[in-house]
Structure formats: structure tokens, C-alpha cells
């Protein structure tokens, strides 16, 4: 069902200079009313190559997404298969460990779960893609991969069952203008306990933005959406939002979801570096980040930087 909802946008009280990088964890926000179209039953209108996102059938063998050991053992391989099947890429590498988010709108959030990302953002600015690849892959592999086409995708799945009190909204990347974007600084602690800094994007409101959601998602489906493409395709702005169809009902189970960002690589030129696992450690985790952040920051459980 299409619906009208309130989604929070970046709204600075005074103009921000082109070289300024506001702190992503404390942005001034303002809710705007938007129309959100339901892709359920309209999947032929949606394409990863056109809007920048897709909903795909994604059966999973994971029984408990709150069990980190099971997720690392099972889910990272499933995500790799989803991305290879959808994009035709020849290899993937994880950018981050899988992250569970739980809405607090309909109840308390379980320990260890991050909050939902409840304002419009993209997970990284363009220049951060190269930076994060060099942080997460061996130096020789990163240099070789940067010579060819690569992209970064977010694989997002809800596992709490329908309906979702805080569904994920996705904005058609074609409706975003350069003036809508604001580069921000962010520093998060990785799963290895180290701090990592980069730039991501917040967005100013535009009536040109076209929003989509999917009603009554199940744990056997997943969103795949673009966070970066070296071919120049736009990132997909996204945000969780309060579902007006469930808002009065306090008995609705809080939305729980898991997300994993993956690099996708296409065939390298002959003679370039070809690792066996595309930067993945034997346990399926990304290698530890190297280097020091520009400043301390907050834990990976901040609101934003995900859905």
C-alpha cells in the first residue's frame, strides 16, 4: 500500500560551507511529509541498475540472527551468493561485520542491538570508497581492485516478521541532485574494537525525491541497494520511518533487521592480483582496520549510517 509518512532530513539553520563536514552523529534534522510508494506487486518497475535498489527472494538458513557466531558462520556466505547472483560480480569482500538493528518505537531494544537509522543518509561519500577498500583489503589487492570496476552494496533484511513498525524507505537515486547532498564526518568503532573515520552523506529535502518501501517484508526477502559504484552511479539515500499504518498499535513487534555491506568486484585485467578470498579472512570477517582515526567517536550503534 502506498502511504504518506514523515521522514527526517538534514536541515541546517544556517548555510554550510562547501568545505565543512558536520558531525554525522549530531546533525540538525527536520521531518518532511513524503509520499512512499509500495513496491509489493510492482517489482517489474524496480531495478538495481535504474533506481539503485531491488527486493530479491533470499531464503536463509540462519535460525537466530541475534546469534553472532551463527550469523558469521552462515549469513556472510549467503550474502555473497545473493550479490553474485544479482549483479554478476566475480568476487565480493565484506566492508563491515553484519549489524543487527531493532526499533524502539514499539518496545525496548534488546542488548547489543543498534538503533534504526531514522534520517535520510547514504553510508559513504564517493572518496570514502577507495579509503575503506585500502583499510579493509591487503594493499596489493586493493591497488589491483581499484584499477577495475567495483561497487559497494548494502544487503538489508528484516527478520521480525510483518508488519514493520519502522520499515526502511529507499529513495530513487535518479531523483537526487548534487545540491541535496551534504558530506559529513563520522568515526565509529569496528567489531575489532578499533576506531575508523570516513565521510558519508546526509541529504537536504527536495520535493523531487521519489520514495519506495515494501509492505510486510518477510525474513525470506532482502533489499539490495547501492552505496557506491566506481562507474559513477548515484548512492541510494535511505531512512527508516514510522509506519503510519501501525503507529497506534503498541502490540506490533519491534522491527528487527540485519544489514551487511559488501564490496563487489568484476573481473580484473590479466596479470593483476587475484587473491583466493577477495580480502576475506578464514572466518569470513573483514581484516582489521589499519591506521588511526582523526578523532574519537561513538560506537557503531549510533542512529543513522544504516537503516
Kindly state the percentage of residues in helix: 10-25%
Task: Quickly name the level 1 CATH class.
Answer: Mainly Beta
What's the mean pLDDT score? 85
Which structural class fits the helix and strand makeup? alpha+beta
User: Which second-level CATH architecture applies?
Assistant: Sandwich
- How many extended strands? 14
- Which sheet architecture does the biggest sheet show? 6 strands, antiparallel
| General shape | globular
SS field, number of helical segments: 3
Kindly report the CATH topology. Answer: Jelly Rolls
- Tell me what portion of residues adopts beta-strand conformation: 25-35%
Uncertain spans: 273-304
Whole-Å distance between the termini?
20 Å
Structural Rg: 18 Å
* Element order: H for helix, E for strand: EEEHEEEHHEEEEEEEE
Number of domains: 1
Task: Describe what this molecule looks like in 3D.
The protein is an alpha+beta fold and 307 residues long. The chain has one domain (3-265): Jelly Rolls (Sandwich), CATH 2.60.120. The protein is built from three helices and 14 strands. The chain has helices at residues 68-87, 126-136, 139-145, and strands at 3-10, 29-38, 53-57, 91-94, 99-102, 121-122, 150-158, 168-171, 181-189, 195-203, 211-213, 221-229, 238-240, 256-265. The strands form three sheets. Strands 3, 4, 5, 7, 12 and 14 form a six-stranded antiparallel beta sheet that branches. It has a five-stranded mixed beta sheet with strand order 1-2-11-8-13, with no helix packed on it. The protein has a three-stranded antiparallel beta sheet with strand order 6-10-9, covered by helices on one side. Strand 9 (181-189) and strand 10 form a beta hairpin. The model is unreliable at 273-304 (pLDDT under 50).
Amino acid at each position: 500500500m502506498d502511504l504518506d509518512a514523515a521522514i527526517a532530513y538534514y536541515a541546517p539553520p544556517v548555510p554550510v560551507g562547501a568545505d565543512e563536514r558536520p558531525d554525522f552523529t549530531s546533525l540538525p534534522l527536520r521531518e518532511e511529509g513524503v509520499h512512499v510508494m509500495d513496491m509489493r506487486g510492482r517489482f517489474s518497475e524496480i531495478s538495481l541498475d535504474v533506481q539503485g535498489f531491488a527486493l530479491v527472494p533470499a531464503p536463509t538458513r540462519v535460525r537466530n540472527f541475534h546469534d553472532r557466531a551463527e550469523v558469521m558462520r552462515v549469513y556472510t556466505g549467503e550474502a555473497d551468493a545473493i550479490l553474485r547472483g544479482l549483479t554478476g560480480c566475480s568476487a565480493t569482500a565484506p566492508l563491515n561485520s553484519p549489524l543487527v538493528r531493532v526499533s524502539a518505537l514499539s518496545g525496548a531494544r534488546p542488548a547489543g542491538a543498534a538503533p534504526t537509522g531514522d534520517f535520510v543518509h547514504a553510508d559513504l561519500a564517493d572518496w570514502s570508497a577507495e579509503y575503506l577498500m585500502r583499510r579493509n583489503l591487503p594493499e596489493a589487492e586493493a591497488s589491483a581492485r581499484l584499477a577495475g570496476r567495483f561497487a559497494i552494496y548494502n544487503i538489508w533484511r528484516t527478520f521480525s516478521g510483518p508488519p514493520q513498525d519502522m520499515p526502511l524507505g529507499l529513495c530513487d537515486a535518479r531523483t537526487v541532485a548534487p545540491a541535496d547532498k551534504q558530506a559529513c564526518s563520522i568515526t565509529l568503532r569496528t567489531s575489532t574494537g578499533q576506531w575508523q573515520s570516513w565521510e558519508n552523506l546526509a541529504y537536504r529535502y527536495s520535493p523531487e525525491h521519489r520514495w519506495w518501501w515494501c509492505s510486510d517484508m518477510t525474513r525470506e526477502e532482502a533489499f539490495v541497494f547501492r552505496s557506491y559504484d566506481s562507474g559513477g552511479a548515484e548512492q541510494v539515500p535511505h531512512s527508516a520511518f514510522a509506519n503510519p499504518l501501525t503507529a497506534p498499535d503498541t502490540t506490533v513487534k519491534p522491527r528487527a533487521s540485519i544489514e551487511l555491506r559488501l564490496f563487489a568486484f568484476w573481473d580484473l585485467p590479466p596479470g593483476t592480483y587475484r587473491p583466493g578470498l577477495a580480502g576475506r579472512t578464514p572466518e569470513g570477517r573483514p581484516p582489521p582496520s589499519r591506521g588511526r582515526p582523526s578523532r574519537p567517536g561513538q560506537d557503531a550503534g549510533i542512529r543513522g549510517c544504516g537503516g
